[in-house]
Specification:
citrate synthase activity, acyltransferase, 20 helices, Citrate_synthase_AS, binds N-hydroxyamidocarboxymethyldethia coenzyme *A, transferase, three-stranded antiparallel beta sheet, 432 residues, 3 strands
């Protein structure tokens, strides 16, 4: 398999680099931790390492060192498509180089080959209570694939720690190949015809997903390619990525680790935020019976802030510029449906909210983030069920976190086990 060969060829050099760093500079101090940080969710503590992606406060996400506009420009695209192959992005995350079109297609072909979802997965989902949240179904479906883990089998048979990444990569391909089918099945089961979707080997991952969702529109295939690429990775400290890393560090296989990651993504402070953003935009539409005037929107935003609520979709813990993941989606909407009512409100918010937040003076970053627009775009193509949006995020997030999982095994990253202190100990430290 192409990803296996490419990673294998780089491994000796990577292992030497890490070993040298540890042997020669293992005691070098990288930073300090304050009591505020310990109580404050470890915000900004520099304690993780990943080479897959990095969030630059002034530029946003970089995948393997490349900014988002460069990634979207340089990744190969299907003929006639606007957005790149998702398989090409997976190659970039896993291997570190831009693929040729043939190489992206090799990943796509590997996905098609492994896309069959065993019947028991659908059966388990059908047997779950009808009102089960789509993320609970998604997490459950991932666990039902665990019995097939090559990593778990090979580990039980006994294998060298140095080789663990190989069955981890097999599992990563198995998992990512099936996620689109599983997500589309959950959508069909909960909201549509309850049909079992099937993967067409003649279509790429994005076009397949659009077809399986029942959205017969070339534009939606482009949007979903963009969506999966944008949501793939955001370095390792966010809840889903960190959960994946932590669970994986116990040498749980990728199915256990990714299911856990998805349980974290399901939280309102993480993947569920995009639902709140769309609800906010729709609330504006309902209140003003359509698109408000600029004055009305400014007043509404100020009222929201005065009542102690936040404006969803604006601000970021790390970024200090408009999120390039937002900018890419905003551009898509502006090109394809500038006169869609919800999107017109999104555009007006884009003009007005940063100034309102700046005037209030609290938010360190008044600019829009990824969630400010993503729901409105899905809504335009008829994916109107808010609860499902986090599943879409999950399919995209799998690309980044599984690449991290494979590399964590390849570089022999150990069990994660930070030290805890008691409040009394912190008080003693404070007292000097
Ligand atoms: N509306 C109103 N107030 C805001 C704000 C916003 N959009 N963004 C920040 N602030 C406020 C904070 O609530 C905070 O107020 P207090 O001092 O009273 O607590 C103050 O400004 C300073 O906050 P900050 O340091 O700028 O931001 P944080 O790192 O604490 O929080 C958040 C970052 C994204 C959580 C925050 O900007 C926010 O709540 N935004 C709205 C919700 C949202 O868009 N969430 C999705 C984030 C995208 C993401 O990462 N998804 O996975």
């Amino acid at each position: 398999m192409i990803l296996h060969d490419k990673i294998s060829a780089q491994l000796p050099e990577w292992r030497e680099r890490v070993t040298k760093l540890l042997e020669e500079h293992g005691d070098k101090v990288v930073g300090e931790v304050t009591i505020s940080q310990i109580y404050g969710g470890m915000r900004a503590v520099r304690a993780l390492v990943t080479d897959i992606s990095f969030v630059d406060p002034n530029e946003g996400i970089r995948f393997r060192g490349h900014t988002l506009p460069v990634v979207l420009e340089r990744l190969p695209k299907p003929d006639g498509a606007e957005m790149p192959y998702v398989g090409g992005l997976y190659y970039l995350l896993m291997v570190g180089d831009f693929p040729t079109k043939e190489q992206a297609l090799e990943v796509e072909a590997e996905w098609a080959k492994n896309s069959h979802v065993p019947d028991h997965v659908f059966k388990v989902l059908r047997d779950m209570p009808k009102d089960t949240h789509p993320m609970a179904l998604f997490s459950q479906a991932i666990l039902t694939l665990q019995n097939d883990s090559k990593f778990a089998k090979r580990y039980a048979e006994g294998m060298s720690k140095m080789d663990l990444w190989e069955p981890a990569l097999d599992d990563a391909m198995t998992l990512t190949s099936k996620l689109g089918v599983i997500a589309a099945f959950i959508y069909q089961l909960k909201y549509r015809a309850k049909a079992e979707p099937s993967y067409d080997p003649n279509l790429d991952f994005g076009a397949n997903f659009a077809k399986m969702m029942g959205v017969d529109d070339k534009e939606y295939a482009d949007l979903i390619r963009l969506y999966f690429i944008l949501h793939s990775d955001h370095e390792s400290g966010n809840v889903s990525a960190h959960t994946m890393h932590l669970v994986g560090s116990s040498l749980s296989d990728i199915f256990f680790a990714f299911s856990a990651a998805m349980n974290g993504l399901a939280g309102p402070l993480h993947g569920l935020a995009n639902q709140n953003c769309l609800a906010f935009v729709m609330g504006i539409k309902d209140k003003f019976n359509g698109v408000p005037t600029k004055e009305q929107l400014t007043e509404y935003a100020n009222e929201t802030l005065d009542s102690g609520r936040v404006i969803p979709g604006y601000g970021h813990a790390v970024l200090r510029v408009p999120d390039p993941r937002y900018t890419a989606q905003f551009k898509f909407g502006k090109e394809h449906f500038p006169n869609d009512e919800l999107f017109m409100i999104v555009q007006m918010m884009d003009e007005i909210i940063p100034a309102v937040l700046k005037e209030q003076g609290k938010a360190k970053n008044p600019w829009p983030n990824v969630d400010a627009v993503s729901g409105s775009l899905q809504y335009h193509y008829g994916i109107t069920e808010f609860d499902f949006y986090t599943v879409l995020f999950g399919v995209g997030r799998a690309l980044g976190v599984t690449a991290n999982y494979v590399w964590a095994r390849a570089l022999g990253q150990p069990l994660e086990r930070p030290k805890s202190l008691t409040t009394k100990m912190l008080e003693d430290i404070a007292a000097g």
